Amino acid sequence: MNNGGARRMNGGGEEDDDEDYVNGDLDAWERTYTDERSWESLQEDESGLLRPIDNKALYHSQYRRRLRSLSSTATAARIQKGLIRYLYLVIDLSRAASETDFRPSRIVVIAKHVEAFIREFFDQNPLSQVGLLTIKDGVAQCLTDLGGSPESHIKALMNKLECSGDSSLQNALDLVDGYLNQIPSYGHREVLILYAALSTCDPGDIMETIQKCKKSKIRCSVIGLAAEMFICKHLCQETGGTYSVALDESHFKELILEHAPPPPAIAEFATANLIKMGFPQRAAEGSISICSCHKEAKVGAGYTCPRCKARVCELPTECRICGLTLVSSPHLARSYHHLFPIAPFDEVPPFSLNDPNHKLQRNCFGCQQSLLNPGNKPGLLVVCPKCKGYFCLDCDIYIHESLHNCPGCDSFRHSKADKE
């Protein structure tokens, strides 16, 4: 018998059957559209017709807005940034993380974007280190120690995604404070908490723990996946961090990636220090030695500390024997662009190629692709304020997020040097 007949026969239970029909008896094509929320990807144009949202233009507008806010903050005052960061990522694995308001569940979305964040973090901060902590059953546990290997962190996280019990914010902060108190004074101590619960089950006074974190110069930031909580907001305000609540998966991705670039250093903690570093040599292929990191005999791959000759597996790290900070020269070079960031490009308003007052180059200076849309109409593009070179949206993002140099300015500088 069909669903309509079943509802008529049940009489008073019609409302319950309606709910079952909506939740469990949808056809396959209906479930697909319900899960993907495809109606959110449509917008109404000027004539009242529905058309797909231009995701590329939307993403670029969000990127430009974020770039302008960062550049305006940097130009308002010369801000010192922490290039050597020690970040603990705290992930809430309580039962609240298994909720399905994020598809397919909160924890799946968290794991997906934490992996992307870890890779982006090490790309933006080659001299920094990350550690992972989890909160489950009211207990905070250290998943990985501070280290510079993204693969080891990701592998450890993917093996521990079971959700259960309550969440305890105080236990997590106490554990983080114990680890970060051992960090040298030149290192910037940070905590990023991905919090899914709407409560915290703590054994003591969490306000005292927050003040202890503030005294230890630990910058605490929280990204919520449910609703705003006073205690999380108070924690961020006291320690100089940021607090945000994700609206959906794309918003969560945007929020977590905002923590990849180094944040401004807290004024009273931003002290200048000279740091002694070592540049180890790569071990010869086929050589056998005991790794000081894992206390195991390994063949070939590894680096030798220039001070104590101990073997380490990866860079950057701190020598377990003599305590010397070990880096490579590319790590220092990749950190340079945070000190002198490239200026944001100016948006070019749309105009016709037939306008005699504008001379628009037809190809992007970076990728040499055409800047014209069908019909010889110029698309969205930007121009460098220094060299006046025009770039497409993809090159604009690539230059500011990966290359960190303007190809037009560099070519102009080289051509000028050749003439001299």
Give a nutshell description of this structure:
The chain has 420 residues and is of the alpha/beta class. It has helices at 3-10, 14-24, 28-36, 55-76, 106-124, 150-158, 169-180, 206-215, 230-239, 249-257, 329-335, 393-403, 407-419; strands at residues 42-44, 50-52, 85-92, 129-136, 139-147, 188-195, 218-224, 243-245, 277-278, 281-282, 288-291, 296-299, 303-304, 311-312, 317-318, 325-326, 346-347, 372-373, 377-378, 382-383, 390-391.
Give the total of beta strands: 21
Radius of gyration: 26 Å
Q: Uncertain regions: pLDDT < 50 for 5+ in a row? A: 1-23, 73-77
Number of helices: 13
Please, how many domains? 3
Q: Mean pLDDT across all residues, rounded?
A: 80
Helix content estimate: 25-40%
Instruction: Please state the second-level CATH architecture of the largest domain.
Output: 3-Layer(aba) Sandwich
- What name is given to the CATH topology of the largest domain? Rossmann fold
What top-tier CATH class of the largest domain fits best? Alpha Beta
The CATH homologous superfamily of the largest domain corresponds to: von Willebrand factor, type A domain
Cα(first) to Cα(last) distance is: 89 Å
Shape: globular
GO biological process, one term: regulation of transcription by RNA polymerase II
InterPro entries: C1-like_sf, Ssl1-like, TFIIH_C1-like_dom, TFIIH_SSL1/p44, VWF_A, vWFA_dom_sf, Znf_RING/FYVE/PHD
Pfam family, one: C1_4
Protein name: General transcription factor IIH subunit
